[in-house]
Design brief:
- With 160 residues, the protein is α+β, with helices and mostly antiparallel strands.
- Helices cover 26% and strands 21% of the residues.
- It contains three helices and eight strands, in the order E-E-H-H-E-E-E-E-E-H-E.
- Strands 1-2-8 form a three-stranded antiparallel beta sheet, with no helix packed on it.
- Strand 5 and strand 6 form a beta hairpin.
- It is globular and about 40 Å long.
- The two termini are 15 Å apart.
- The relative contact order is 0.18.
- Pfam families: HIT.
- InterPro entries: Bis(5'-adenosyl)-TPase_reg, HIT-like, HIT-like_sf.
- It comes from Effrenium voratum.
Length: 160
Amino acid sequence: MSQEASLLRSPGDLGSFELRLPSTCLFDVICSEAWPTDEARKKRDSPELRGGREEMAAEAAGYRALLPGESSFPAEQAFASFRIPRSHLFYASPSGLTVAFVNLKPLIPGHVLVVPRRTVPRLADLSQEEFDDLFRSVRVVQGALESSYGAEASREWRRV
C-alpha cells in the first residue's frame, strides 16, 4: 500500500487504528507534515490554553451556522465517561437520535465527533433507526465541514 493511501500512527498514539487517506487530502498540511503525538496535543481546557471551553463553544457556534434548520440540543451529551455541554454541540438530527460536537483534543482543524444520543458499546447495539440516523448525520456534518474548509474529501478511521 502506498504512503498516500495509508498512514500508520505510532503504537499507543490512538490505540491500534489505521488512518486511510484519500488521494486528495482534507488539509494539505496533513499530507505534508507528520501527525502530532498524543503528548503534543493539548486538551483545550488545560491550564496552558486559557479559555479552551470558550474556544470550543465558539467553534461549535461557527459550525452550527453552517448547518440548515434549527436544532434542539440536549442540556448535555454523554460520551463514554465525559459529559459534553450544550455549548459544544453543533448538530442534532431532526429525529434527535444523533448529535455532533467539537473535539476536546482535536488532531486537526475540523476534527469533530458525530455520535448516537444513546450510548451503546457497539454499532450493532443501535436500533436500525438509530444506525441509519447516525450515518445520515455523518453525511450532513461531513458536507458542511468539507464546504467550510474547502476540502474535496474527508478521512476514514478504521479499527485494525
